[in-house]
Specification:
mainly alpha; single chain
Length: 135
Amino acid sequence: MKTAIKLILPVLVLAAFTLTVTIAPHTLAFDGTITGGAEAARGSDQTADLFGSTGIFKTITNVLLYVLGAISVIMIIIGGLRYVISGGNSTNVTAAKNTILYAIVGVIIAILSYAIINFVLGSFTGGGTGGGTNV
């Protein structure tokens, strides 16, 4: 059985390579340039803009920031509940305070990362919200 697999595997790899080389150039819309590769990889329902107010990076950043903010608010509520039901136990009070502290640190990091991402994307696009030198 192992010898049959050793014999068939190279034939299958060679056949796959041959099909890729002969069929792929005719079926893909790739002209060999970076722009052509990006356009070939983009779906028909996706935006062509990577940057800007409707860009993919901006959309991903906004969604992740929203999720991170929601998780941080939930963790602050959980920390508050843990603090209330700690019953004066110093270990539980410390754990609850740490939960609240880490949630607040998470919110601060999320806000700073949003500012940094906007700055960097503004530098790439050369537009209003970010820095950069428009040389």
